[in-house]
Each structure stands twice: as C-alpha cells, then as structure tokens.
C-alpha cells in the first residue's frame, strides 16, 4: 500500500513539530500516601497532568528496559525497523542496579508501538516500499503524540516490548496462526507476538470440566484478564435448574455456575495495573432460568441492604444489652439475670423485637459473665468495594438479555412466552411475555442491570451469517460477532481535527485509513488465549476503529447534543469513518486477499455494505432488515461537504468490495474509550455528552484547580459572545476566586470585623483551590492567635470541626451562599449574565450541573444520538443512557422500545441512584431560606412570627436535621393499622416521641415467606434509625411512594388509602397522611377538625361545645396532646394548629406570637434544634457528586473521581476503569 504523509515531512523527525517537556507524575491516595511517583516523565508539551499521570503510571513499562541496546540485523527488513536486544557488553560495564529500569519518556512508548506495527506490517507485505513504511512509522508516532488517536490499553501494555527492548518470557498458553504458513501454532514466547486485543467473545459448552466447558471458561477468562482484556459469553447453552444430567441426577442450573465465574473474575485485576475484570454475561429470553437471571442483581443488592441495616441493628441492640448490664448497681450475678435486672430484660425484649437471634443475645450474656463490657460487631456500608458487596455475587460483570423480535411481539400482544429446556428443546415453563418484560424493566430501573441486546437487529447487519448467528458481545456491548473471536480497538479524538472553525475532513480520512491498517496489522501479529479464538480471528479479522469526544466537538461548534444538527454531524462523521475503513479493507484485500471466511459470506456482506450505503444516501429500500435504520440527515448537517465525503466513501467501499472483497469482516465500533480517553485529554468519551461544565484540573504534586470545560469558551465565541461577555459567563460558573467584589462578605466587611491586610491575604491565597469559602475561614488559614484574640472565639469552638466561623461573625446563610457563588462559582451556566436562554441547550450535560443547575439531557436525546451513528457502525455502540432518579419503570421500558424502533443493537440504562453504592446526583444540596436561619438562631418572638407567617402562607418549614440520635421514651404512643394490600395482610405499628412526631415503625406481614418478612422488618428498622437521627419523614415519603413491585393492588381496611403500587407505597402513603397531613396522597380525605376545613353551611357559626375559660381550654388540649397519638388522629387535633381566645402560654417547644392587628394567638410546635447551626466536614462522596463525579472511590487509587464511561466507570485521577477498552 502507498502511505501519504499529512502530519510529518520526509527527512524530518516525526516529532519535529512538537515540543516535549519533563513533568512530575504523582498519584496519591485520599489519605496522602503516594501510590506512584516519577519526577522525570517526558511528555509532549500541552499534555494535561492527568494524561501525563496515566501514561506514566499505566503505560510506561516499569522494569526490564535495558540501559543499552543493540540492533539485530534481519534480512529483507529496513534497518530502521530492525528489532533491538540488550547490549550485554555495554550492560556489563554498569553497576547491576543500573542495567535495567523502566520507561521514562512518552517517546519510548510511541516508538515501540509504532515500530512494532511497522515491523510486522513490513513483514506482512502491507507497504509498497521502504519510504511507505517510514511514512507510516512517522505518521503513527505523530498521531499518538498529538493525542489524535490511541489504541486500546493492551496495545500500550504489550505491543513492542519484544521489538524495542528484547523483553521476553515463557509462553502463557497462547496460540496464533502463522501469517506466512497459515498454520495454527502454540506460542513459545510471551511477547514476540503481543496480545493487543481488548475485546473477546468466548463460547461455553454445556460440559463441566472438559475443554470448552464451564470450568475451562474460567481459566480462559483469567488468561484474558491478566493481560488487560475483557470478555463476554452467552451462557444460554447451559441447561436450566432441574434439567436431567447424563448420570441420572439433576442440574443445579445456570445461576450456580454464574456465581462461581463471578467470584473468580472478582479475584483478578486486569493487566495487574488497570482495572478489575471486565466481563459480560448474556442470557437468551427463552432460557428456563431467565427470571432468576433478570433479578439476580436486584436480589443481591437487597442482600447488601439487609447486611448493612442488619449489622448496624445487631451492633446497636447487642451493646444496649451490655449497657443495661453495666448500669446495674446490684451484685454482678444479678446484673446478667433478666429476671432480676429489669433494664436487661427490656433490652433483651427489644433485641428480640428487632429479630436479633437468641443465640447472639445469649452469647452477650456469656461474654458479660466472663467480664466483657462491650462488643464490636462488624458493621457494613454500601461502598461498591466494601465487604458487603464482596459478600454477594453478580458484582463483577455486566449482564444483558438477548431479546428477539418474536418476544417483543409477544409483549405487544400480551401473549404467552415459552421457556425451553436446553437438553431436548421442550417447553420447561410458560410465562406471560409482558410480565417477563416488566421484570426486565424493574431490574434495570432498580439496579441498572440487565442491559438489552436486540438479537434480530444485530443479526440483520451480520456480515458472516453463513458461519452462524451472533450470540454474544464483549463487556461493553460494542463488539458483537461470532463466538470465539476477538477485536482490537482504537479511537480517534474528533476534537483534534477541528480548528479555525473548520473540521479537517481530509486529515480525518487520512487517520481513518492509517488506523484501519494498524488494526489489521495487529490481527496479523497477535497471539490469542485459545486455539479457537486464534483460528477464528485469522479467518474473520474483525477490527474496532471508533472515535471519541463527539460531545466536546459539538459544544466547540456551538451545537447542542440534543439537536438535529448535532445528530446529523455525528451521522456524517460516523459514515465517513466506516466507509473509509471498509474501502481501506477492500484495498488491502486487493493486495493480500480477502479474509478466509469471505467467500461463503460474500453476498451477505455485500448486502450489509449496500444497506450502509443506502443509509448514507438517504434511501429507504433496505435489503432484509427487521427495522429500518436512521438515514443520514443531509439537510441538517452543518457542513455539507461532510455529507458528500460520506456518500463518496460508501460508493468506493462498495465498488472496491465488489471487485476485491474485504480484508476484514467488521471494521468499526464505538467504544467507551476510558483510560485512552484520558491519555488523549478528551473532554467526553466515545459518543457520550459531557458530564460537567466545570472540571477539576489536577496539579502536579496533588490537589485540583477548578477550570471551565475547555469547550465552553470556544462555544461562546462561536455563538457570537464578546471576550468580555464570555469572561463574565465563565466566572459565573467557576467563580472569581477572590472576595474583592463579592456581595456581603468582602474585604470591606471583613475589615469591619477586625481582619487586617495579612489575614485578608491569607484568605485570598486559599480561595483559588477552595470548594467552599467556609473551608477557608478557619484557624489553620487565619492563625489560632488571630481567631482567639482578635475575633474572640473560644478555643473549644475553634477545635470543633463543625464550627462555622462566618456564621459566628454574624453573616446569614443567604449572605454566605451569595458570596460562595461569587467566589467559588455555581458550576452551571444557567442564569449566567449575558447568556441567552436559547443557547442553554449547547451546554446541556448528562446530569444537572452544580447545585443550581436544573437542565440535563433527556433519555430520548441519548437514544436518538446513538441511532444517528448506529446505521454506519459495523458493530454496536457502548453508551450509558442516563435517566433521572425520578424516572419510572414504564419510562425504562419505553426507552428500550424506542431503541429497538430506531435500529439500535444494544442498550444500557443507568438511573441516577439506582445502585445502593451510588449516592443521588440530584438533590444533594437544597437551598436554605432565611426562615430556617431564624428557626435555628432567632429569639422566641422571631421564631413564632416566622412560623405564623409560614402557616398562613401554607408553607412547610423544614426542620434542622439533628446530628445526634434522639432516643424514644421507654413508654410511648403510636397506633397500629391493619390493612390488606393486594390480598396480603400488612400490620403497621408506629412509635412517637412525646411531642407526637414519628420516631419508629414496625412492619409485619401475615403468612409471608421468611425472607420477605425479615427484609421488611429490617427495612422498618433502617427507617426507624433514620428517623431517630433526624431524617425528615418527608424524605422517606418522597423516596418510597409510587415504588412499584408485588404485592400491590387494592387496599382493604384503611379509611384513606384505597390502592397501592407496592407495600412501601402503601406504608409511606399511610405515614404521610397520618403525620404530615399529606391528603394529596390519600384517596379518601381523613375526617377530623382542621384549621382550614370549610363549614357545612347549615351549621356554620353554631358552637358545638359550651364555652370554657382560656386556661381550661389550654389545660385540656395539653392533656389531650400528651395522651393521644398524632398519627392516630391523622394530625387533625391538636397538633396542627389551635386557635385560642387570648394568648395561651407556650410550653416546651411551643412558640407563641400575636398576629398583627388581632387578639388571636397562633400556637404551633416549632421543631428546631438547640444545637448551633454548623458546617460539618464535607463528606467525600457528597463533594464528589457536587463536582460532577459518580461518588464512588476508585478501586485503584481510592480517589472519588469516577465518571460514567459507556456502561462502566473510569477514574479521572489514575485512569483506572471498570471497562474493557
């Protein structure tokens, strides 16, 4: 092949146009310990600190690189491509410790990868001349250094180590087809033939221990995980639970073996440095065990919830028994005797009520008799890498179900669906298709798994159906082909082809051509983990070229992700890439021959190519497709030239293919580009939109600096905003990093409080890296002496981590927030000065930005963008479809159905907060109003005035959350409500504080299974603990009403609730009606006197009781309040509001105020804490969520900088991913 130069010049060094610099690379854990440190890392100038860290920590070879090398002459190979080995003579002259080391320069990495590709390409006959090989070598090195493209991680790990350094090792059981003899060979070396493939699809047979069977699969998976690759398998060939075995027994079923494989995968770290095992598990919808598979992760997450709640209740109740024993003031023998120690008896009863096993209760008594005074019962949390998650299964894979058109039709028709035995094909069970579909929707809604793969759509675009159907995929669902095949990926950074307002289409075409050649060479040089994969990879030679940063490109061009223009541009760029890639493949086939499997699949493949071409030309007469693909929208494409190039590319791909065939059965996919996206400094990964407008730039030596997404200023310029306007808009988002012109809290006001120039300078120096100004105003910034002597703050307050210095100085919450927005920014562009609302859409992200942002991309916008690209992709697209937490199960299923109707091959949904380990992205911080401040710190008169005003305005005033647990009285009020929900008896018992607020609930189910009954009991305990720590009941009500699961349906026995979508929906409706007066959640309004009830007309104005004195009325109401249950009375009297003649004296928490111009006093319970309002140290999860991250710690470096990446996650600190590319 002839290779043109576009980025380099003949006779010049490949890096001549680039400058290099030396940086310090250091990655630290959150506790400050150093994970990795290198102070001599050479990288191209302009690379970010994160990109530098990732290449240094992940991709530099750490050992075995000789200090001196020598070339090995090879006949027929150009001298510049001779491979190198250690120069033993030169090394002998060095001290032993200096002979071998690691890579220290990015040039070494670029040179070894591009050199190995060029070496094998030359040997394979891919270059017409030595000058073509040299041009290829230079162009590839330049593109890597300029961050224009990057291959998948295994290439960085393994490619070129043998060619560049002579690194070798014993065979690891790999195989390859010799490119010259075409014979299958077992590898004798670990690195001569590298393992560059990221994505594998492996088969499994219904056999326990033989080759190709279940246990053999775990070994094959381990071999892949070790070298940094991911694998997927369709397990539908395994027989279901209860099916007969050849020896006469019965099979334990699919799920038992999946749990073994899951545990094995969790023990292996891929590549040793990158991520934990990347794995896909697939099951067909007609498998006998499909229901268990669908609900697998839902049930496992429920186990985690039970472990967390149950462990904490155990720890609490068992130590209460110890406390009762310690408090006994009699003899030590009597202390442990429940018959003589009433407190112990009560504690044991309480433990029994909380379902603590008698064995444990008895064990505590035995410990106490032996002199122990407390117990440390292990408690668990919901971190995704916590002991609770490690205990359960299903956490090390992505799960997907294979859905056929026949199944979807059965769902539409509400028809029966047959589950078929694997042994004889007979019907094992018949279920309603719609009920099974609902289970899929509920599981995806509840825990983000399983994903969906549309079997018939995938196979309608299959280029090689003569060799069998496509049944599986890689872990992220972008590579879909025959079982026992592999795909090596590479992605181009679209933003690097955009400059001066134009997209460099010719450069993009040139890069596409060279990277197609590179991936083809990688197939030729590679070794594989099994004979089958080696043979089939040789026969079909599938490639996975893709792109990244479409979101960043669209924003730079001033186009919204959710716009017709944005989708049209995406479609055009995708069409160009795949068209050129197939044309290049046909060009290689002309010189080297088509892939061996092409002959019997020729007509099928040309049909697929013709369909791609029809979509590019906007035609509709597609051949043999089940769903018509989305055609290229030429009319809305902002660059008409791209449409012409796309159509020309497909014309050429078809004509060359008809003449010569194709070298590769597949050419393109869109991968999640996790770690390699960081190396390329991509703002967005794969086809994803951006996740935040404000990013946190990593500083050398640790720490982060807040910057605007680099696409924002470019977009503002494109949209016509002046530099001055753009500067103000950006400052609104990232803040001014100074109090100079801040409202309320500024230099002038601080001087008035005693701050001098030195203190103001200290504050100003700390502001640029501050996340919140409150964390700057402390004794460590200002100095203890100044705080104590000048500001007069006592030492005990200074040492209290929750002390808020600004509030102490008299600034209100509103003033602090206003100053905070000015200094630290809002992290959103909504409401920014000068920015026109019609331009907001350009800056929409996957999630709301900052605590003030409300806009985010809709579910449909993600799906339509995928559909625009899918018509021009050989494989599929790895993408997360983000859904808000408020999304329903119906919306989940609707998203799946829309995806199918638009021809998308696979779909993965992520509903915000659907995983236990994921805190909610939305509603992290709620705006506090001045009323709450008065309730917290104001005088009794101010509190009462505010309360009266809020009651008249019908506004609920929020409680200040307690920061300690408030114990319920030993003897307490409450009520029991019996009801039947969907035919199941439910008993709800409440417990109240002395003032009538809810403090605990008990839930019991009549004749239910022990598992469900225990789970509901533990759930009630968890809610009770939350209530006692001050979690408002409103929060629980908002979270659990309208949840949907069985049992559900009509409600009998409750006077207000008549229908419920689940047990939890019923319980929290009942509590909301009874304790919050949420009559909007009742189907029948509760009866009882309420202050805003209308009179009945004929009785209006007529007294129904005799008059009594004010004092008697007050006394009577007080007695009634003490003995009655607020919930039982449905909050009707006396809790809500009592109008008294004259003014009753307020008691306890009651506050009284005279309404202006009237002698009527308003008395209401003012629920405030006596604790001073404070600023606690911000929780790292919460801080991470507010910064736009997921809120989980990275499994590699521990930092809370994980972001969504396709169906997986990646760390923006160290580059670790839970994905496969």
Name its key features.
1221 residues, alpha+beta, ten-stranded mixed sheet
Beta-strand portion reads 5-15%
Helix content: 25-40%
Major sheet characteristics: 10 strands, mixed
**Structural class estimated from helices and strands:** alpha+beta
**How would you state the average pLDDT, rounded?**
84
Shape assignment: globular
The total count of strands amounts to: 36
Description:
The structure is a single chain. The chain is α+β, with helices and mostly antiparallel strands and 1221 residues long. The protein is 38% helix and 14% strand. It is built from 42 helices and 36 strands. The strands form twelve sheets. Strands 7, 10, 11, 14, 15, 18, 19, 22, 25 and 26 form a ten-stranded mixed β-sheet that branches. Strand 27 and strand 28 (984-992) form a beta hairpin. Helix 10 runs parallel beside helix 13 (358-369), helix 15 packs across helix 16 (433-447) and helix 25 (711-718) packs antiparallel against helix 26 (723-734).
Describe what is shown at a glance.
The chain is an alpha+beta fold and 1221 residues long. It contains 42 helices and 36 strands.
């Amino acid at each position: 092949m002839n290779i043109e130069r576009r980025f380099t010049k003949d006779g010049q060094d490949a890096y001549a146009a680039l400058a290099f610099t030396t940086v310090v690379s250091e990655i630290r854990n959150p506790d400050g310990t150093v994970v990795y440190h290198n102070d001599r890392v050479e990288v191209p100038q302009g690379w970010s600190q994160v990109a530098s860290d990732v290449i240094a920590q992940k991709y530099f070879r750490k050992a075995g690189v000789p200090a001196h090398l020598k070339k090995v002459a090879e006949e027929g190979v150009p001298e510049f491509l001779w491979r190198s080995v250690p120069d033993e003579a030169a090394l002998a002259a060095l001290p032993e410790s200096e002979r071998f080391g690691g890579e220290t320069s990015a040039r070494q990495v670029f040179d070894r990868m591009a050199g190995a590709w060029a070496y094998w390409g030359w040997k394979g006959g891919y270059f017409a001349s030595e000058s073509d090989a040299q041009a290829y070598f230079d162009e590839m090195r330049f593109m890597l250094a300029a961050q224009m493209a990057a291959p998948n991680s295994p290439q960085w790990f393994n490619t070129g180590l043998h060619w560049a350094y002579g690194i070798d090792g014993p065979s690891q059981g790999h195989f390859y087809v010799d490119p010259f003899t075409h014979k299958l060979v077992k590898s004798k070396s670990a690195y001569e033939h590298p393992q560059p493939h990221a994505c594998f699809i492996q088969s499994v047979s219904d056999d326990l221990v033989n080759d190709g069977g279940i246990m053999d699969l775990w070994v094959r998976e381990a071999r892949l995980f070790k070298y940094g690759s991911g694998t997927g398998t369709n397990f539908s060939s395994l027989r279901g639970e209860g099916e007969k075995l050849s020896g006469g027994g019965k099979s334990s079923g699919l799920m038992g073996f999946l749990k073994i494989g899951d545990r094995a995968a969790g023990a292996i770290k891929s590549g040793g440095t990158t991520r934990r095992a990347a794995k896909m598990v697939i099951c067909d919808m007609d498998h006998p065990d499909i229901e268990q598979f669908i609900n697998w992760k839902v049930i496992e997450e429920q186990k985690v919830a039970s472990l967390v709640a149950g462990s904490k209740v155990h720890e609490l109740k068992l130590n209460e028994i110890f406390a009762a024993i310690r408090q006994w003031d009699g003899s030590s023998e009597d202390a442990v005797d429940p018959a003589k120690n009433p407190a112990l008896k009560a504690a044991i009863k309480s433990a029994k009520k909380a379902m603590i096993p008698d064995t444990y209760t008895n064990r505590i008594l035995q410990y106490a008799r032996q002199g122990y005074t407390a117990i440390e019962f292990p408690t668990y949390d919901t971190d995704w890498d916590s002991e609770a998650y490690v205990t359960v299964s299903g956490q090390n894979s992505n799960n997907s179900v294979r859905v056929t058109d026949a199944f979807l039709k059965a769902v539409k028709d509400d028809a029966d669906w047959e589950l078929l035995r694997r042994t004889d094909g007979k019907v094992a069970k018949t279920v309603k298709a719609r009920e099974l579909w609902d289970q899929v929707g509920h599981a995806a809604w509840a825990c983000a798994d399983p994903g969906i793969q549309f079997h018939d759509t995938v196979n309608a675009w299959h280029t090689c159906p003569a060799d069998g159907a496509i049944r599986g995929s890689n872990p992220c669902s972008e590579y879909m082909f025959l079982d026992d095949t592999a795909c090596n990926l590479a992605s181009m950074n679209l933003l690097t082809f955009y400059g001066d307002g134009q997209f460099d289409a010719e450069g993009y075409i040139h890069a596409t051509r060279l990277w197609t050649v590179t991936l083809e060479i990688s197939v030729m040089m590679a070794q594989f983990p099994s004979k089958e994969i080696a043979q089939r990879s040789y026969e079909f030679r599938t490639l996975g070229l893709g792109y990244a940063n479409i979101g960043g490109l669209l924003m730079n061009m001033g186009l919204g992700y959710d716009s017709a223009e944005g989708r049209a541009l995406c479609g055009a760029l995708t069409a160009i890439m795949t068209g050129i890639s197939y044309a290049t493949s046909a060009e290689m086939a002309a010189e080297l021959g088509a892939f061996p499997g092409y002959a019997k699949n020729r007509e099928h493949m040309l049909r697929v190519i013709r369909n791609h071409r029809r979509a590019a030309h906007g035609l509709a007469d597609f051949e043999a497709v089940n769903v018509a693909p989305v055609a290229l929208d030429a009319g809305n494409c902002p660059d008409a030239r791209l449409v012409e190039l796309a159509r020309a590319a497909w014309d050429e791909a078809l004509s060359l293919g008809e003449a010569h065939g194709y070298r590769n059965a597949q050419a393109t996919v869109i991968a999640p580009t996790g770690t390699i996206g960081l190396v390329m400094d991509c703002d967005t990964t794969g086809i994803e939109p951006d996740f935040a407008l404000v990013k946190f730039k990593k500083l050398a030596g640790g720490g982060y600096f807040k910057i605007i997404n680099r696409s924002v200023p470019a977009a503002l310029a494109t949209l016509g905003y002046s530099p001055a306007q753009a500067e103000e808009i950006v400052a609104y988002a990232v803040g001014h990093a100074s109090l100079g012109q801040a409202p309320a809290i500024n230099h002038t006001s601080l001087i008035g409080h005693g701050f001098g120039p030195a203190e103001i300078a200290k504050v100003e120096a700390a502001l640029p890296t501050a996340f919140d100004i409150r964390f700057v105003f402390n004794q460590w910034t200002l100095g203890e002496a100044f705080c104590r002597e000048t500001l007069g703050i006592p030492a005990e307050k200074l040492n209290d981590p929750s002390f808020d210095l600004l509030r102490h100085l008299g600034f209100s919450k509103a003033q602090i927030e206003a100053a905070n927005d000015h200094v630290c920014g809002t992290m959103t562009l909504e409401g920014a000065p000068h920015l026109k609302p019609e331009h907001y859409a350009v800056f929409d992200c996957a999630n709301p930005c900052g605590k003030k942002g409300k806009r985010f991309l809709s579910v449909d916008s993600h799906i339509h963008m995928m559909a625009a690209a899918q018509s021009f992709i050989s494989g599929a697209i790895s993408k997360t479809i983000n859904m808000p937490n408020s999304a329903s199960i119906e919306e989940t299923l609707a998203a799946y159905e829309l995806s199918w109707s638009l021809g998308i091959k696979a779909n993965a949904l992520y509903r915000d907060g659907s995983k236990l380990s994921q805190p909610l992205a939305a509603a992290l911080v709620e705006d506090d109003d001045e009323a709450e401040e008065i309730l917290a710190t104001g005088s009794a008169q101010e509190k009462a005035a505010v309360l009266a005003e809020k009651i008249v305005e019908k506004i609920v005033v929020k409680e200040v959350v307690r920061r300690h647990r408030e114990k319920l009285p030993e003897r307490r009020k409450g009520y029991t409500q019996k009801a039947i929900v969907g035919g199941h008896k439910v008993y709800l018992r409440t417990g109240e504080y002395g003032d009538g607020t809810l403090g605990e609930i008990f839930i019991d189910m009549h004749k239910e299974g022990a598992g469900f009954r225990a789970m509901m009991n533990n759930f009630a305990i968890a809610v009770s603990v939350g209530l006692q720590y001050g979690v408002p009941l409103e929060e629980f009500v908002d979270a659990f009403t309208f949840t949907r699961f069985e049992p559900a349906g009509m409600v009998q026995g409750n006077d207000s609730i008549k229908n419920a979508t689940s047990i939890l929906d019923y319980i929290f409706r009942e509590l909301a009606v009874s304790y919050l007066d949420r009559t909007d959640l009742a189907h029948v309004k509760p009866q009882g006197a309420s202050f805003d009830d209308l009179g009945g007309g004929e009785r209006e104005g007529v007294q129904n009781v005799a008059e009594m004195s004010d004092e008697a009325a007050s006394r009577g109401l007080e007695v009634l309040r003490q003995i009655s249950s607020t919930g039982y009375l449905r909050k009707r009297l006396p809790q809500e509001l009592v109008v008294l003649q004259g003014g009753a004296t307020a008691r306890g928490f009651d506050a009284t105020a005279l309404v202006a111009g009237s002698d009527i006093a308003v008395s209401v319970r003012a629920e405030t804490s006596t604790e001073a309002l404070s600023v606690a140290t911000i929780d790292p999860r919460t801080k991470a969520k507010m910064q736009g991250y997921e809120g989980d710690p990275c499994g590699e470096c521990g930092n809370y900088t994980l972001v969504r990446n396709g169906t997986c996650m990646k760390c923006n600190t160290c580059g670790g991913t839970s994905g496969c590319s």
